[in-house]
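Cross-check.
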Amino acid sequence: MTTLSRTTPILRSFDEARAREFYVGFLGFEVIFEHRFHEGAPLYMEVRRDGCALHLSEHHGDATPGASMRIQVSDVDALCTELLAKHYAHARPHVEAMPWGTRDFTVTDPFGNRLTFTSATST
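Predicted model, tokenized:
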């Protein structure tokens, strides 16, 4: 029987410095690899934090800006507190209790992609 495995979303980016500031500086991801077909070519890179891997691409055909995704975290409140302590100028997330039994907060990257971090509510 065939089974499915981990999903790695590709998100559109337009500016390497702004992508690094947001994903590495603010969200705490680590750059795993970077690729360009030649000098001056658009950047394609993987960032990862714990078990969450994302691919960021400046290539126009790889993705459309404005994607949305939900990222499961063990403690959404602790992550939100960590991010707020960084005093990032472009995001001040806050956790909300959702009617479907999760606690969530959403941040939008500089390219219009929305990342919702979520934890199940204890019962």
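Helices lie at 16-26, 76-84. The radius of gyration is 15 Å. Passed to J.P. for a second look.
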